[in-house]
Write a structure and sequence with these properties.
The complex is a heterodimer of chains A (about 425) and B (about 130).
Chain A lengths: L2 H6 L3 H33 L15 H8 L13 H17 L9 E4 L2 E4 L8 H22 L3 H32 L4 H7 L5 H4 L1 H14 L11 H4 L9 H26 L7 H4 L11 H23 L5 H32 L4 H21 L32 H4 L14 H9 L1
Antiparallel strand pairs in A: 1-2
Helix pairs in contact in A: 2-3, 2-11, 2-13, 4-5, 4-11, 5-6, 6-9, 6-14, 9-11, 9-14, 11-13, 14-15
Chain B lengths: L1 H8 L1 H4 L2 H24 L31 H25 L1 H28 L7
Helix pairs in contact in B: 4-5
The chains are: A mainly alpha (about 425), B mainly alpha (about 130).
Keywords (chain A): Cell membrane, Membrane, NAD, Oxidoreductase, Quinone, Translocase, Transmembrane, Transmembrane helix, Ubiquinone
GO biological process, one term (chain A): aerobic respiration
Subcellular location (chain A): Cell membrane; Membrane
């Protein structure tokens, strides 16, 4: 039986079990991600990080999760209350919904029922993930708009513009994968990678996806909507208590989703890595083992998210938009044209597609790398004659400053006769004299 | 059993049932969480709490209905997004059936990408992609 048929035969209780498992997975992964992020970033920054709750502070996330519902919920008077209430829900639901098409493993037996470790394998699985990540934007925009406050409004807009910009790059980078698979079903995409994972067959797609998934989830170095120094907290500034927690949850679940999706598209999904897959007639690709490979790969990407946050400074907004629209999108289009042409070429003449693709991929990576080095058009600087800039690039103070005359400039101070402080009995003695 | 039957009757829509179940569960969880906050948490009145947060200064006046004004650059980005999203949507079906379409599909998709590329170059040239 095929994957889709097995899943179609799932009884309702099994669907419910899987759905609840996915909900729990989202919540638990969020808590684990938060504590890991705080611990790892702390280590990168040479500070202890959370170390109070539980052994070495590892229970901090649980404490935070319990704390949040018991916080006061504050809704500003200027808020549009209905939309304000709906916004966190709108951003949470799609985040969880995208989980349902991710294949976590092959055929297993749950309580005697043969099934696949995946909630549903739709013929349009890839579109479901993209649609969910687009729908999440509504929650962000509406949250910013409904708060009735300037900072959330700006944060929400920025966030939306950012997500939709990188959505394009993300969607286009998937096209090459679909070309190779000939299917939009996530299960088929994993199966098609049995002969070779796409991350080296389609290097440019993989790299563009990796960049755009960081932009898509609003994470450092692209965390402009939450730029604390500019926008306080971004779109959720006016949110507190559980509604804030929902936004937080949605953000982290989205990170898990894009990582899991990346694993599915480019890293062979739940398949065992190369040396392990040779052991014992593909033994490690059966049963429950694939869960291990899947989560190892996914957590690798999640670690990269943390790593980026600990390493890179935040980008400026115009640089960020330029990267999305002027580098990732055209590079993507050129790459797609290349792949399409090469595929047609290969169908006509028998040439190993792998060699062509790897060579072409390397060339394109070099080109993308070079495009970063292109100098920006220098904006005409009107202030250039006011502050002279030395060779080092740092502005120096003007050198024609005349040091003002000390006596003339200083206000004449009245010289008071110094008097000894009169304290206690000694003071009386002095006054008598 | 319910699923098996429904997939027999309407094989197209039956497979979407797990998605509906997931949606219902996620919605139930989200609504429950959102309602839980005000029930469990404390509520101590303070006039300052209900003002828009602007780092402690007096909140700037807001329009009576909805939030403030939206910079026009965001509309431009949204329209560009629609342009390219449609391109993406057209590329997906092509990608699925590229091998079937063969050379005809190849030429067609090149023409299509060239058309969108022309619009893209125009927007780039006019500074639509610059962010100020």
């Amino acid at each position: 039986m095929t994957r889709a048929q097995l899943l179609a035969d799932d009884p309702l209780w099994l669907i419910l079990i899987k759905a609840v498992a996915l909900l729990l997975l989202g919540a638990l992964a969020t808590m684990a991600m938060i504590i890991l992020e705080r611990k790892i970033v702390a280590r990168m920054q040479h500070r202890p990080g959370p170390n109070r709750v539980g052994p070495n502070g590892w229970f901090q996330s649980i404490a935070d999760a319990i704390k949040l519902p018991f916080k006061e919920q504050i809704i500003p008077d200027t808020a549009d209350r209905k939309v304000y209430f709906l916004a966190p829900i709108i951003s949470t639901i799609p985040a969880f919904l995208a989980f349902s098409v991710i294949p976590f493993g092959p055929e297993v037996s749950i309580f005697g029922e043969r099934t696949v470790l995946q909630l549903v394998d739709l013929p349009v699985g890839v579109l479901v993930v993209l649609a969910c990540s687009s729908l999440g934007v509504y929650g962000i925009v509406l949250a910013g708009w409904a708060s009735g406050s300037p900072y959330p409004l700006l944060g929400g807009l920025r966030s939306a513009a950012q997500v939709i910009s990188y959505e394009i790059a993300m969607g286009l980078s998937i096209v090459a994968v679909i070309l190779y698979t000939g299917s939009l079903s996530t299960g088929d995409i994993v199966d098609a990678q049995a002969s070779g994972w796409y991350f080296y067959l389609l290097i440019p797609s993989f790299l563009i996806y990796c960049v755009s998934m960081v932009g898509e989830t609003n994470r450092a170095p692209f965390d402009l909507p939450e730029a604390e120094s500019e926008l306080v907290g971004g779109f959720h500034t006016e949110y507190s208590s559980m509604k804030f927690a929902l936004f937080f949850l949605a953000e982290y679940v989205n990170m898990v989703i894009v990582s899991a999706f990346c694993t599915t598209l480019f890293l062979g999904g739940y398949m065992a890595p190369w040396p392990v897959s040779l052991i014992g007639d593909n033994y490690f690709n059966t049963g429950w083992w694939p869960l291990l490979w899947f989560f190892t790969k996914t957590w690798f990407f999640l670690f990269v998210f943390i790593w980026l946050r600990g390493t890179l400074p935040r980008m400026r907004y115009d640089q960020f938009m330029r990267l999305g629209w002027k580098i990732l999108v055209p590079a993507n289009l050129v790459w797609i044209v290349l792949v399409v042409a090469l595929r047609a070429f290969r169908n006509e003449a028998e040439i190993s597609a792998t060699t062509i693709l790897v060579a072409g991929g390397i060339v394109l990576v070099v080109l993308i790398g070079l495009s970063f080095l292109l100098p920006d058009r220098a904006a005409p600087d009107e202030d250039s004659d006011r502050v002279p800039v030395t060779g080092g690039g740092y502005p120096i103070p003007p050198l024609d400053l005349v040091v003002p005359d000390k006596d003339a400039a200083a206000p004449r101070r009245v010289r008071r006769k110094r008097q000894t402080a009169s304290v206690g009995a000694g003071a009386e003695k002095e006054t008598e004299q | 059993m319910l699923v098996a039957q429904s997939s027999d009757v309407s094989s197209d829509l039956g497979i979407y049932l797990p998605l509906v179940v997931m949606f219902a569960l996620a919605a139930a969880f989200a609504v429950f969480s959102a309602l839980l906050g005000p029930l469990v948490g404390p509520s101590r009145y303070n006039r300052a709490k209900f003002q828009a947060y602007e780092c402690g200064i007096e909140p700037s006046p807001q329009p009576v209905v909805g939030g403030g004004r939206v910079p026009v650059a965001y509309y431009l980005t949204a329209m560009l997004f629609i342009l390219f999203d449609i391109e993406m949507v057209f590329l997906y079906p092509f990608a699925v059936s590229a091998d079937v379409l063969g050379l005809f599909g190849l030429v067609e998709i090149f023409l299509f990408i060239a058309t969108v590329g022309f619009a893209y170059a125009y927007v780039w040239r006019r500074g639509g992609l610059d962010w100020n």
